[in-house]
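Re: beginner question about structure tokens

> Can someone show what the tokenized structure looks like for a real chain? I only ever see the sequence side.

Sure, here's an example I had lying around. Input first:
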Amino acid sequence: MPIPRLLPLVAALLLAGCATALPELPAQPEPPVAFKEAGRWTQAAPAEAQDRGRWWQAFADPVLDALVAQAAERNTSIQEAAARVAQARALVRAANADRLPQVGAGAGVGRQAGANTATGAAPATLWQAGVQFAYEPDLFGRATGRRDAAALDAQAREALLQSTRLLVQAETAQVYLALRAIDVERAIVRETVQAHRSTLHLTQRRHAAGDLAELDVVRVEAEVAATEADALALDRQRATLEHALAVLVGDAASQFALAPADWKAQLPVIPPGVPATVLARRPDVAAAQSSLLAAQARVGVARAAWFPDLSLTGSGGFASPELGDLLRWSARAWTVSALLSLPIFDGGRREAGVQQAQAELDAALARYRGEVLVAFREVEDQLASLRLLHEQAQAQGRAVDAARRATTLSDTRYRNGLVSQLELLDARRSELRNRRQALQVRSAQFQATVALVRALGGGWDGPLRGDASPPATELARTRP
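And the corresponding structure tokens:
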């Protein structure tokens, strides 16, 4: 059989032998059947396909709604993540362009001389105009693999954008709720300052009448000054939170202000659902999965570098030593060529590329597994925190009631001269401590609820069960 007839068969065998397959991924981590800390929560239906962008409305606070909406429009982290998504999409379009024929047009002029020219050693001018064509068939899937990897990178960027949005929403809610908790705590401390000042006036009158020693007056003065210092420390904390909130909503700290107000937000109960939904809902887990698949595609691209390259090129146009004759039919010229190249020895460059791609795949797999484990841990952390904080809030509420009652009795007995000043101050210190601790516990419940929403990858559109604990304003009510 003549050799030319064997060429198609040899080419077919070569292509069949060079077919590449993506490396198989190891088994993925299996999600647990249920969260161990979810005993007191109602199981909810999975909500992967639902819009989870308005979970903060479960707190029923219009100011929070407005701040989150402003952060969505003006937060710089979200804007940067959106720009990264646009960049990744542009790379996908560029990778798609590599799979298509390239056609261009050009014109030029050159002057040349030498033995290899038609005019010999005499210099001559050559005018040229025409079109060029180039195409590299994707025989072994290199261009397709690069396109697939770029598309998966774009999906990862889109998931990271959603993750950034969720992070900014959660941080905005947490900072705002912490600021409102500070407002209530400042009211409690200032109420205590007023009570200490009333006691100071009474003590000064009794000292002037000769009923008490100067030491009693100094003690109350010290208590007033210490409580005022606590109030100033809370003012500093509030200013810091207000500045942080300004950055989150995209404003300058010098131009942003949020007036003190009552803490009207409601504490919802977020149903965690089942653990498997976390893998589908969390955008950071989705981003890690897309990055893993992109690394897998790049391993295939690196392996395909061992296979032959086929390039098809062509050009057609006109060439003439005279500009006036350039477009004549007799000046036409064209070329068509095909180039098949096969790597033989490259000093280990291609093998190093395969090893590098495989190492990146291993790293991406480890990152994905880490994201999954962290996701489950974060949910369990917040479920445990909410369960224990609920019990702590109940116990702390009983302590507040007892301390308030003790202060009322001590104040009455002190005004009647039945107990010492030290007993009254101790009772007031105990009440202040317990009321502030109760407020801090409730604030921690709000923080843990927002953290649970973030750990679950978002909220739900359906109604959420409310919390039975008293509102925060109850903790700051004026003592009778």
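Each token stands for a local structural state, so reading them left to right follows the chain. Residues 1-19, 39-51, 461-480 have pLDDT under 50 and may be disordered.
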